[in-house]
Amino acid sequence: MTFEGVTLAIDGKRIGTSVLAPGPGRFLRAHPTRLRTFALPGQILAAGATLGLIEMGPILVPVRAPLACIVLSVAPTGVVGYGATLAEIASLEDLRAGGVST
Fold this sequence. Notes:
Helix content: under 10%
Oligomer: single chain
Distance between the termini: 28 Å
CATH architecture: Beta Barrel
Number of helices: 1
Shape: elongated
Largest sheet: 5 strands, antiparallel
């Protein structure tokens, strides 16, 4: 997958955590009945905020930020398998510890 996003590094060490697909389906960056994208690179999210949705048949399963974070990249809408990387995020706590202000 190709991501559009940003890369963050502290003292030359890349930081970030992958958010993985909870199951197979179609990853959606926005709800099918709405135009607004859930998360964009550079956006700061609270823990539990929606990053996207996995469409599994008629069911939409939310993909949530596991912690307060800044979004580094989000996968494009499309079919994904179990464990596919859907987003890269950086913990706000790790950023603050590294001297980055948010």
